[in-house]
Amino acid sequence: MTPIQANTYSIYFNEDCFSYLENQLKKESYSKIFILVDENTNENCLPYILSNLATEVEIEIIEIEVGEESKNIYTCLDLWHTMIDFGGDRKSIVLNIGGGVITDLGGFVASTFKRGIDFINIPTTLLAMVDASIGGKNGVDLGNLKNQIGVISEPKSVLILTKFLETLPANEMRSGLAEMLKHGLIYDKKYWDKLKNLNNLSTNDLDTLIKESIEIKNTIVSQDLTENGIRKALNFGHTLGHAIESYFLESEDKKTLLHGEAIAVGMILESHLSLSLNLISKEEYAEIKYIITDIFEKIEFTENDIKNILDLLIFDKKNEFGKVQFALLNKIGEIKINQTVDNSLILLAFEDYSHI
């Protein structure tokens, strides 16, 4: 596959990844390679990387615990101290091998260590391949509030090895699919239409769809790296989705949701908001709801759950002057940013969702 050119880096696929990596490591004469993994990628992905990594540079492997619970400033402190202890300097590089937690966290750690060192993202989940590793957003959660602390700093490259998808359970694959569906809904109806027929797709089709999803995100990000305008389109489904994800993460009696599971609910709810504001038709809303609920299990919400989720909306990063900002659909394949919505319409959206 032809590499995709982003603002300051390239995204490589499969057979091109290791030749690029070998050349990059030789060209830059790095002093040390730090490889950040979690327990799963250490076991399932790192051996393949190491067996194909031709370099004489000293390698240090750092493992963190799996899960969103590790995506915090305390993990960063541990990593910074570890890198110091192992002799990390301005000519070190970090390879982030993992899902969105690893690429978000590892990118932030690298971007702030010694005021910024190089890093390369090697995403191992579908979600990280099509979303988290692309676009230069790096950061950590503040308590249970998603992505409140971070920087925008682009990697040296992103290496997409779709072989790693073979290690994923079905729920992780679905989680990544949520972001792919979002890309079609906000930008390209033809791409959305392709994703509607997943049962008829082969493995080769999936590789092509992953590349197309990355191209959509990259096209948007390239126009607006710092999210002052069109990049806000990528937040469709995320205003309510992030609040739902945060609430389920902090609630002891709730099962923690994967990012894509929460975003899938968010996309249905925010599609209903789009319907309430007469931005999309009833037919479009029905289609969106049908496709997403066919893939993702319904989540049950009590009145108290909904109240607490609404309270969390005020912490959304897109908010300006205390007002919650939504990116809503204008039609399938087109977005409208900076939309404000009354809570009464959000409650109607939850009411409709409860009858799925």
Automatic annotation (TrEMBL):
Entry's Gene Ontology BP terms: aromatic amino acid family biosynthetic process; chorismate biosynthetic process
Gene3D superfamilies per the UniProt record, alphabetical: 3.40.50.1970, Dehydroquinate synthase-like - alpha domain
GO cellular component: cytoplasm
Pfam families, per database record: DHQ_synthase, DHQS_C
Keywords for the protein's UniProt record, in alphabetical order: Cobalt, Lyase, Metal-binding, NAD, Nucleotide-binding, Zinc
Residue ranges constituting the 3-dehydroquinate synthase N-terminal domain according to the UniProt record: 62-174
Domain 3-dehydroquinate synthase C-terminal per the UniProt entry, residue ranges: 176-319
Entry's EC annotation: 4.2.3.4
Major enzyme class: lyase
Parts forming coiled coils: none
Transport found in the keyword field: no
Keyword Lipoprotein in record: no
The protein's required cofactors: Co(2+); NAD(+); Zn(2+)
MF GO annotations: 3-dehydroquinate synthase activity; metal ion binding; nucleotide binding
InterPro entries: Dehydroquinate_synthase, DHQ_synth_AroB, DHQ_synth_fam, DHQS/DOIS_N, DHQS_C
Superkingdom of the organism of origin: Bacteria
Task performed by this protein: Catalyzes the conversion of 3-deoxy-D-arabino-heptulosonate 7-phosphate (DAHP) to dehydroquinate (DHQ).
Matching NCBIfam families: aroB (TIGR01357)
PANTHER family on file: 3-DEHYDROQUINATE SYNTHASE
Protein name: 3-dehydroquinate synthase
Originating organism: Flavobacterium urocaniciphilum
